[in-house]
């Protein structure tokens, strides 16, 4: 009797609790939202090079302007390189024509901005001289000196100062070829249509392969090393723009094999012997001027 | 490729809701069985708990009332007459049993004083044992559910996780969306086990203490009453 009422109460209690739990928990049902998909494009190195390349067909192109960066890097300008300059530089050229007559203006401002411009008084003269000297050259090949952009900078907070600084940098670079890097980076920032020296950010696989094949063809493997599986040598090579070896090849990594030294030596000889490497295109010079590349006997016999 | 197309081409993952009902419904039948059993245990435990709670509080109150009545100076005959028909509590039952034995010894033709004291003690012991048994009835269920409930729930969980791992292996997909519902289902069994076991353990401990207390009271009363009766026997024997 007593137990029966207790059972009924208990059952009712459970039903009530379960009902409450069912509703309160079901409201918290979690949904699994599929993760947002990211569009991924797989592109080859070649595609990537083309993407980063500046666009050629914009606005007027006046003759062959020298990109500041390249000019600085290497005194003797080569026609191939000059073809590459991006739109920005071209624009600059147009601007620069107007700007060139006013070299003195920029000078006072740069002093504020760039500590590099140490000798203030001598500069104007030198620059003026340089400009004069340069002028004849451009007429022959490239007429205008790619002075820093005058109009493009508007997006920048301090437009006037920057023009001047760039100009001076460019002029100074002419005197001192080793400063190419600094000027190059500045100009790149301006570029919206294509980076000045970003024609190819990487050496394309085909170029590396071509280079490797060429080296391999010149390589005389020392006797006995053919069978050594674990032989490997990595060279660091610095090139000149024309594909000749400037420094090295220095073996930076080798295998501790009795054949190791002989193998490395033969590789060194091969690389030196087969230069220049014309398959390395000058427009990608930045990416192959200093490379490390590894060879194993297996690569060569496969 | 259009991202929208990609998203559509993905296998649509069912948005699983984790309401109790779906948790229960998707579980393996073994797990279901475990859960149903545990729910039934829980209902039974609460029913017992409610029953015992009422029983103990009533009994305790009645015993207090009877004790005050007993010590109020009322004649034992009157007290016996009021309670003889239907003793309302353990102490009254004890009193009535003792009085019955007493009366039986005096109403007969021959007065048998010799073993009366011993018989009274015996009767009272038996009554106390019977009363305690009545109070303790079904308390063992609480103890069993309290100790075994978690294990039963754990069994359901282990079984559920085993099956959910098998389904993971079958679908070769270990994303959380695939794993989570199975694990949740499995854990639900342990939850039910704990829900049943925790109140059971608490109630068992409380009720065991209560029974112990009332048993002590009965023992005390029995001793006192026995002393009173023994004095009466001695007086009558002397007289």
Provide a quick synopsis of the model.
By secondary structure, chain A is mostly helical. Chain A has 14 helices and 3 strands. The interface between A and B is medium-sized, with 24 and 31 residues.
What does this structure look like?
The complex is a heterodimer of chains A (302) and B (239). In chain A, 48% of the residues lie in helices and 8% in strands. The longest helix of chain A is centred in the first third of the chain and has 25 residues, at 2-26. In chain A, helix 7 packs across helix 9. Chain A has helices at residues 2-26, 45-52, 68-73, 79-83, 87-99, 108-113, 122-134, 136-140, 159-175, 180-190, 205-218, 260-273, 285-288, 297-301, and strands at 233-239, 245-254, 290-295. Chain A is mainly α and 302 residues long. Chain A contains 14 helices and three strands. In chain A, a hairpin with a 5-residue loop joins strand 1 and strand 2. Chain A has a three-stranded antiparallel beta sheet. Chain A starts with a helix and ends with a helix. Chain B is mainly α. Chain B has one domain (19-238). Chain B is rod-shaped. The chains are: A mainly alpha (302), B mainly alpha (239). The interface between A and B is medium-sized, with 24 and 31 residues.
Total separate domains of chain A: 2
**Major sheet characteristics of chain A:** 3 strands, antiparallel
Low-confidence stretches of chain A: 60-74, 89-100, 105-115, 136-143, 179-201
What percent of residues of chain B adopt helix (DSSP H or I)? over 70%
List the helices and strands and how they pair.
The complex is a heterodimer of chains A (302) and B (239).
Chain A: H1 2-26, H2 45-52, H3 68-73, H4 79-83, H5 87-99, H6 108-113, H7 122-134, H8 136-140, H9 159-175, H10 180-190, H11 205-218, E1 233-239, E2 245-254, H12 260-273, H13 285-288, E3 290-295, H14 297-301
Antiparallel strand pairs in A: 1-2, 1-3
Chain B: H1 3-9, H2 20-25, H3 29-70, H4 76-84, H5 90-107, H6 116-136, H7 139-171, H8 176-238
